[in-house]
Records
---
Amino acid sequence: MRMPLDELLIAISLAAYTLGAIALLLYFFSRDERQRKAGAALAIAGCASQFAQLIVRFETTHVWPLLNLYGSLSLFAAMSVAIYLVFAYRYKLWFAGGFVLALAAIFLAYGVTWYEGTMPPVPSLQSYWAKIHVPIVVSSYAAFLVAFVFSALYLFKYYAERAVEKSGDRGAFSAWLAALPSLPQLDVVVYRAVAVGLPLISVGIITGAMWAKEAWGAYWQWDPKETAALFSWIIYLAYMHLHTRHAWRGLRTSWVGVIGFLSIIFCYLGVNIWISGLHSYKV
Amino acid sequence: MTLLREAYAEFVRTFGNVLFAVSLFVVWGLLTLVGVVVDQGQDPSQYFQSYAAPVARAILRLNFDNVYHSPWYVGIVALILLSLAVCTFKRVIPARLPPLRPVSVEKMPLHATFETQGDAATVRRRLADLLTARGWRMRDRVFGGIEWSFADKDEWARRGVLVAHAGFVIIAAGTTLYWARGFSGEMAVVKGTTAQVERTGALVRLDDFAYKIAPIMTKSGMVYQPIDYVSNVTVTGSDGVPKQMTVRVNHPIDVDGTLYYQSSYGFAMRFALSRYGRPDTALAGRTLLEGDSFEIPGTSQSVVYERFAPTIDKQSGMPTADPRVNNPAVVLSLTQGGSSLGEALVPVGGSVDLGNGWRLTAQNYALYSGFQYRRDPGVPLVGIGAFVLLAGLIVSFYFLPARLYLRVTELGPGRCEVGAAATTVKGYDVFESEFRGLMVALNPVT
């Protein structure tokens, strides 16, 4: 039996992300240019294949493909890789790609487990807002994933440097660590990723409120999804305020970046899967 | 007076502190999270069922069962708005790049020095031309006989935070306008009947209601997906002219500035009560909606119409998940003093013995449509506020007000040294790569 084209494209993306993650993780440790080029090519191929899959799915089913976890996780993975690619190209940050691609592959594979076939959308989702609100919110999550990876790398480098300093080791590990971007550079990258995500999630919350007004008559109903998104928004707002303080910039804001992404995962998956509400669109 | 002045100074110092604002965000965030984790608006007994008794008591005492309307939540939002106002006047409005003064170039974190060809005037002109072409505003000043050039970029963008804060205030004003002048409510209209909206006097008659269900076989079984809810109504507004309209989810109707939304549907039931075979008039002319109840005359027992079961499986006699009507029944419960005495599944057209000679017959059903109505004069303000907030966020994140200090010193005939330093309103690291690129552009030889 032949595999449908959209499923084939997802399989290609998954394979490309997995292989790309391996190549870029090897590059992270070895700094071998061939691995970087292979990893970057696979990331681009996987991302292109995913966007093609979303288009094919829309064309064949005529149902907006982002209205369930399968579709939205697919866009989440694709946007994470796309935003990472822009950052990597713009700021020469290919070394972090292995982590982004690995996370993208995990989320995409998890999304595939929710695939139940094509379903017509429920009445509340039959709105032009679905084409505006969902991609914006999912893109903001993707930007926060990139911010999370660089926050984690900041923390890794910070604590590794301290350990090296304490032990007095000046060996290969120390030299490898020094070749990573400096802590201020990593902090600026996190800031720039949050600066992409925060306006997007703000627009997402606002467009969601406008949609809710049209569908249910009220901007805000204190639905678990709305409040979880508000919680994440507050965390990133706190990040931006803390980042204005020199003493808090860097280590502490990186921890906020990590906590912020955990809140995003709770908002995105936790609320959809475990807590029932107006946004329980799983399949 | 001094005490008052000191108290005011302390208030401004505390509420104008960014870390205080962040602390408020943390508390706000945690309270918001409580509302996500703890089910809101449940009956107190539900919390004792779901949590250990001390936790349930704490939830109820701290108003965590309705946290978003609790004094804590409203108070923290009020404190944030206060902090926002103080920060706006104390920090955001006065925030500006440093005054035009000479600096110790080498002591600034972002600095560079390079030699270049040409006399001082020519070099200054060359630098000014290049920076002006890139959008920098040039100003020259002489301090102690040394001529300094100052270049500013995107200085206007320092107002971004102010604009974002203004957006919040406008949104808050729009929301307040709704609380002061708007209203909302819900109503259920049974097919073929008319209901009146008290606040507006509008009449809404439900001519017809239909729902469409698509049975779809998925990988994990049959799913009955609702795909449409349609209410055909005749509405009579302030002009007294009946108008036929259609309400769907995402497609509200507007009657005299009040919007009507399709929010729910259900099955209204007519029941007949009898005792020892003689009809009783207690339920004559009454239509019950799901959740409604009535008392059995002369007893302290009540019957609750719990829910409608559209399809009963003929083999098992149990309700199925299919929401389409095919062999329907109703679920009734008998209660006394708030405690349930039992539940019964009664087919539509069938009856049930209630004891003491009482018998209840489920006669027939009619669909009803649930509408939410709302008049919100704050909508334009909230929309404008949201736009202003976003504009402020974009300006503050994507435009970086920066200052370049340039000192041109003649080293000899046709040779000059350029000392350059930079600062921004967001520190130095965020501008480092741009500064390095700028230095390369200013001195292509390097």
---
Amino acid sequence: MIAEAGHFALALALALSLALSTLPLLGAARGDAALMEAARPLSHGVLLTIAAAFGFLAWAYVVNDTTVMNVVQNSHSLKPLLYKITGVWGNHEGSMVLWVLILAICAASVAAFGGNLPSVFRARVLAVLGWVLVGFLAFILLTSNPFERVWPPPPDGQGLNPLLQDIALAIHPPLLYVGYVGTAITYAFAVAALIEGRVDSAWGRWVRPWAVASWAFLTLGIAIGSWWAYYELGWGGFWFWDPVENASLLPWLAGTALLHSAIVVEKREALKIWSVLLALLAFGLSLLGTFLVRSGVLNSVHAFANDPERGVFILGLLLAYVGGGFLLFALRAPAMAPTGLFAPVSREGALVLNNLLMCSLAVVVFLGTLWPMFADFLFGVSISVGPPFFNMASFPLVVPLFLAMAVGPLMPWKRAALWPAVQRLWAAAVLGLLGFLAALAIGGWNPLPLLGFAAAAYLIGAAITDIADRAGVGRTTLANAWNRARGLPRAAWGAAIAHAGVGVCLAGISGMGFATERIAALSPGQSVAIGAYEWRLEGVRDAAGPNWTSRRATLTVLHNGQPYAVMEPERRFFPIGRQTTTEASIRTNILRDLYAVMGEEEGGRAVIRVHYKPLAPLIWIGAIIMAAGGFLSLSDRRLRVAGGARRREAQAGVPA
Amino acid sequence: MSATSHATPRRPSGLRSRKRQRLAAVGLVLLGLGVAVGLFLSAIGDNLVFFRSPSDVLAEPPPPERSFRLGGLVEAGSVERGGAAIAGSRPEIRFRVTDGANTIPVVFTGVLPDLFREGQGVVTLGRLGPDGVFRASEVLARHDETYMPPEVADALRRAGHWHPAQGAPPPPAGWNTMNPRGGSGG
């Protein structure tokens, strides 16, 4: 019964979404307030039905209902409860249900909290979200029904892929999906504005919170995915330029561009057409990511169970939504004359540069990711494009990006001069030089990471300069400046913190450039050393968990000959599914990671690989700081409430 | 500040027509695209990694400085874990990769991925040594044991082990029990 109820709830959600996608539009066209108002109860109804479907699916997992195909394929009665629940979205069908659930939550919150939106506009936004819901609900019901029955029921399920039985993987997809779905919301705002034929500064103000939220969640989702790859795959890397990673990076790049250009729309009524285009592109890239992951057209370590039929369906959705959006754009954009004119050297000019570089970066990543597919179609050759390509091609774009993102916030709107802004960065430049020299003294000559450290210190310095400058440090008393700093709009703090987060993250990435690793076959009592650290193998023993057994090595870490820590890397064997996973052991003190992996055993020796990774944790801490900056600026009341903003703006200057 | 005198103050944009600004915008977009495509073209040439099956490699050995991906099945019984004789030495693993028709010996130093198994599909990244031994720097792992890299399936098909006319490729677990040389896939 549970499965049928869930299936029915999904079908009901589709019916309600169909109504949501048409009635409010009709109402907006006719000026019928009752039809427009229908959007609100309808979007709440969609949320209720999808939440019910999700609940039924989760329940089937919790009670291990083996008459449901999806549960049989992805769960097992012996799995810990936490992973039974997270297993709901650890597979294709369930993750799609989570996707539409998050979309429905966002739509319902636009309905509930969009009180400051004009009712015609809100009705159109919700209708566009209704289209998106219709497409994805149809996709689930037609190609990926999570409630399919199996008869006769097998005695137990086949278990979840052990690599996915992990807490990071439990929270990674929901965060990422909130980010992806956020691009659907900005898409809906863009399409609604195109239908209306009007984009103004108010539009920029409405879109910005959603762009910022989507960006912050994407940042967190990507960071947690990368952290998972770091400790779970046991390779010691954090980013592999894998197609699936790139698929999440592309909407992030477009979203970063959008959240910056939306500021220009809001403050200067310029870049309007461009921002609408970016919103369409960001959603298109999110869908493309979904398509790449689900269809299996590209080879990836992350491959879901592949199914060409689903791929074709998603490609159809992609063409319909993005193609439709672009068609509307082509019809309406020429009529939306730009009203804001501006000089190239100004705050908005710097934001244009940001957009240009972000989009160029996105094009490079896009081409590199899809090239294997094109090469296969066009020339029939099987190739892959690896990290060296992405590093080489993105470097020339990243350097000016870092230089400019420090200068931009220091420039005033409308007209600025470059030199005074650059001049104020002297402290940041000195900090950058110090970062370079310090890294050189500690790590030795290694040009790229050294440049990275210089840029990281420079970015953090520039963020501090930005705040200090706004607070008037040097122009007034320190106490006065402190008060002014506290009174700065949260969006200004958020921007500075996010920019500093980029610097912190960059420091971590640069630290990886100085990482060293050793690999050795050790018998008990033997050791392997990196610098001042020495790992001594004490022994290997058997261990067991709820649904696995393992061989666990005990390593004593010696620092300058003194016992320092014990590390226990292991290889787990999952009898259900007959798989082995590597559990790396990591000892961190924020400034460096000690990382140990156990390989195979042979003749009483175990293969042990150890890494010394300076500053590695900063990669993820930096990403969290970036996201925190985003959330902080979300709490700025000017971003929530339309009124009451002008006065403070004039007082405190405007954040980037 | 004396610094302001260095800067050329911008004139208000009265003279700058909207048309010119729109033209500038289109120009900027084209510039961004051009730069991106230029970077792509300049970097892609040296960094393309081709996939080769053992038969491809024997027919047309790639130059030793060019890294490529070698894929096929790990030949049953070919895995030797050597190099562990000396205390603390680097563990060296030797195995052969086959597509049923030909095999290439591979040597790899490192920790093998969890799903590496004899008879299982494998993709390795590295360079071909002058002695005809492939020196792998990476052995690629997959999340999923039932996953067959498409290139490997293709290589097997080309070597005559399996033909699309026979339906879907057999699951990789099934390759375990197959004789890699005997053509039992027929």
---
Amino acid sequence: MKEDRSNKYMNPYLAGFLIGLMMIAAYYFSGEGLGGSGAFKKVAIATVNTVAPGYAHEAAYFAPSVENGKSPLNSWLVFEVIGVIMGALLSAAYFGRLSMKVGKSPKITNRTRLIAALAGGILWGVGSQLGRGCTSGLIMSGMAVNALSGYIGLAAVFGGGYLFAYFFRKLWI
Amino acid sequence: MRTTDKIVIIGLLLGSVWLFFAGKNAGDKREIPPKKLHELMLQKHRDISADELTRRIINGDPMLQIVDVRNEKQYNSYTLPGAINIPLEDIMKTDNLAYFDQDVLNTVIFSNGTSDAQIAWNILTRLGYKNLTILRGGLNNWFETIILAKPPTGPYDKESDDLYQFRNGARVYFGVGASSETESAPKPKVRIPIIKRKKKEVEGGCS
Amino acid sequence: MGPLYPQGLISEPLNLLIALFIGIGFGIGLEAGGFTNTRKLAGVFYGYDFVVLKVFFTAAMTAAIGLFLLDSYGLMDIELTFYPKTFWIPTTIAGIVMGLGFIVGGFCPGTSVCAAVTGKIDGIYFVTGAFLGIFGYAFTYEPLFETLRNSGGLGKVNIASELGISDEMFIFIVTVIAVIAFIVTDRIQKKVNSKNPVENIEELGL
């Protein structure tokens, strides 16, 4: 009988070490920091550019990414995130975690969780654009080069989290 | 805590200690942010008077490094004793920057007036180099004050008189009315320049 | 000597291929570490699972130590890499917004993508929300956000220089703090879970 590994996880320190190595490689080969939200941005811009290229070339948010005529999807970050998807699939397949489900605390309903997930996503959508990155791009990559922005991000994101944690505890515990 | 955990943690600690012993120097130089630069520019002791510089030269201050940022012709025609010549246009050359890339010597920068010396000070301070001052009033003022020192007028005042005596003595030390003589300057210290990196903008990141 | 692509030492297609492979490594690290499980992610804020702290700081410090070692040995020039500019006002505000997003949504963009593709429906909703947020932001950018986003610019600031210490001293201090945090939070986690464990704790692999 096949072993159920679905609740087994890689040692967090090893996982962190692996990710750290990936960050070093990213800087060494490409001069870039690992990112997440940047790819979202490129996809959004590419979508708008396909549907309404005139607007995309005019509006301040979109213009810089489309001006040189290259597709915004033709970028390092997008390829990286495609890789992330592949890696996640590989790992999930190995551990037997490929399944449709709603991850949540048993104390709340699916509906609550999904609405919260949507809301959380919207917050990150706005926040990551305003803050020029998400946990990987802004904070982790920033910390890797001793950038002040990374540490400000670290304090703000985790500080913010702890600030609001109590009020939303019912979602988790 | 499991063994693997301990191995990674010890690895991190050792790695971070290793940094101190790694390869070339400590402390990558980064540009000073504008606010810090502004603060430094407003500080009082970033310039030095002709008298003070003269005192240090005569006392043979071992920590003193004098840099003449005028062109080669002017330098060869007349310069301060012990001064090395780094023309302003050449100041960003790797070999030349090496003279400033140190924390030990006190560097005095001068030109005929103050604007060129100030330009040099600005750019070097911005690059993070330390212990830099400029000669107040430049070489012109130095010449006026020291070489062409005038006796004090008015009622006797010990301080003014002492100053005049000092300047007289200095003039003798430097040789009288030196505009056509070249000073036999002690050889400037030779330093192995550290190769510094070029800066280039790189696009990227999550922004 | 690195970085290779910014100096034209490797071609663009190769660079993108490398991006793909690095991404794969990143994705494996995230999923295997448990970051598709939203309860594990939120655990750092409630004390029952500090996996986020462990992975995060280990990754950041491994990268920092590695990069600065490469730099010190002349194998790499950090100054040629993408060095982020600091905009303290929008970053602080955005950070707090993202912190709230973390508590409410239980993901960040990178982990939500991992979750979404491995079948977690909440991940899919999160990704959708993220796009909504981005489009909303994009279409209201000029009137609402542009000034804010460009405020508080300090340029490329290095935190070690700001504090007046060397890069390696700073990294060393952060590493020590991180290790202390690892030990302390381990104890906190044990205590929280012995007294009042969360439901279905076996799902968290604890």
---
Amino acid sequence: MKAGVLLLFAAAASAQVDPDRILHADREPGNWLTYSRTYNGQRYSPLTEITAANAGQLRAAWAYQIQQPGKFSTSPIAIDDILYITEPGGEVVALDGLTGRPVWRYGRRPPSDLHACCGSANRGLAVLNDLLFVGTLDSHLLAIDLHTGKLRWDTVVADYRAGHAITAAPLAFGDKVVIGIAGGEFGIRGFLDAYDAKTGRRVWRFWTVPGPDEAGHETWQGESWKTGGASTWITGSYDPTLNLIYWGTGNPGPDYNGDDRHGDNLYSCSLVALDADTGKLRWHFQFTPHDLNDWDSTHVPMLVDANGRKVVVVADRNGFYYVLDRATGEYLRGEPFGKQTWASGLDAKGRPVRLPDTEPTPEGRVVYPGFHGVTNWFSPSFSPLTGLVYVAVREEPAYFVKEKESHKPGQWFSGGNPRGVPKVEPTGSIRALEQATGKLVWEFPLKSPPWAGLMATAGGVVFGGSSEGLFYALDAANGKPLWHFGTGAPIFANPVSFLVNGRQHVAIAAGNALFAFALPKPLP
Amino acid sequence: MRCCALGLLAVLLSAQTPRELYVVRCAGCHGPAGEGSRGPALRVAALQRANDLDSLTTLLRSGIPGTEMAAVAASEVADPALRALAAYVLGLRTNSGEASGGRLNRGEELFRTKGKCLGCHRVNGEGSASGPDLSEIGRQRDPQWLRRAVTEPESAIYDSFGGYRWTILIPDNYLLVEIATRSGEHLTGSRLNEDAFSIQIRDGEGRIRSFLKSEIAELRKRWGKSPMPSYKNAFSTAELDDLVGYLAGLRGLR
């Protein structure tokens, strides 16, 4: 009896995800405890059962079909054989990792008059102690009981009727939950928020568009800052030693027409480093000053320690790969990593040198990359094993048309109408870049521009997805294809890996299902 | 923000004149002037599903389930603007007489005999499937387009890419490809689909063939090329009128 009580207690305790467990995520490689698995944003799995030599034998273990269709983009959290996922409308489901069977479900029907620019999507959860955190399309932040799926608190982050939405996975650490906001096509003023994980009370807010009397305000013309965009819709990274969080920001508003927002438009299209306790700005680096092409810098920044230097690397929508000192924000290096026709290069401080006649016009102009960038929100990956940065690359121009548009709260406010370019078939690839230099090491061609992220593993494999619905494994060293599986629908998601009963699984959302794969069980 | 900025959506709210709404919401599939492309032509005598203002407005609001025709949400286009768009679309219709002054029987005869069109095309279950099936071509394309397709086939290759698509389920642009397999087979066909690991084509005999790229020694994509010859000098002007008249009358199942 006593032993039974102790056992129960132990099980309950292990199901708690205290902050230390996430800080030391590498101590439990079989779990996936935060959006990118570790706070450094690398989306790298230390698991080694699946290797370049045996990946060709991967088999589907199970699939879970979601209940409400949408853009299924969840990045599962995996804790001790249970997966926690979000469905596109913000529903949260706990799945048995062995079978894919749901064990509880939290359903919340969003209102019908939403302002998500690009359809219903939710990219995942954060976990801390016994709570899961999820943002909703109507801009609430919810805390859900990890064990039962019941709502524990519900905080309104912003008014969705004014164009706000939440699609990103929150980032939880210490006693806080940080959440970003979407709405850059609706003339919102962007911000990043931190909430008390226990109560849901707001701890700090950092406005990504500075108000009057704040540094950077002078980079906005007149009242344009009020509708300046610079949303924060992709999960950032965290350096516990420096106590800084790193977060990418979105396009300035209106997207394609800068006539009424002359200036650099800080801190749009930037990486900001914020004090994790206070939300105060430590430094910023702007990738695309005065953006006119919707090249958000909402990417997962990857924190890498290399040659004794703490750096952060970003492969940006604008076509350049950047290496920055993450303590100071100092620009160390930048190189093109995909097709772009808008800049002749970067100057000594990393500022792009825009070519003449590349801005959108009323008649329209063709520029590479298009409005979806050389890459997009989906995650890059870094393997400490190979020293390579893996990026899913889009090669797709757009015909950028500028239009005059006035702002009405809650209404579309993009100042233009970009289109595809006739007779140019968009394409894409997976590229492996040398981390320190950005030099291309290998490339795996895709038929269409990808919408899926990457995950490198200690087994020497890179997993990715394609817009034709293929989930595939590449050799991390040379890009050689090892295995693929046709899921039957375009993939808009990031892969993860975890252990179930000690066996390595990889999983990805595709179409309306989450697919899990593993090696065949050895014969008894 | 936006992962995924989208021109189409952008338009919804910014462009509200009927013409602007048409360009952003409809032209991608129905052609800039309603001549048709991936979707049916609208510059026809009568639309397939709705020919009065109320029905078409309702149809636009609800979309057509099971097709690519999406619903227009009220949050994107308000009722008055949608009604104006419906009126604009109805105004694209032609007088039925414009379709052609040609003689339909003569056109069909030319299609079957002198043109040998069934050697590559299929109509109502007859003919080869190596080229596009023309059973419904009269409601997909207008007569001017059809005339150009017969005289300058390469100018009429469908362009999949001008109208932005987030993902491309089927490229449907009849891209001409030449394949040399590692086992020594050489063949030419039109691409039906492709991904990073495989390609599906329809060969000259109309058969669907699928190849893993690992089996292919050389894959050439002949952008802008069509296997169809020009019939500009093959037919007299009167014969062309007859042929186009026949094609414009191909409306599929009624």
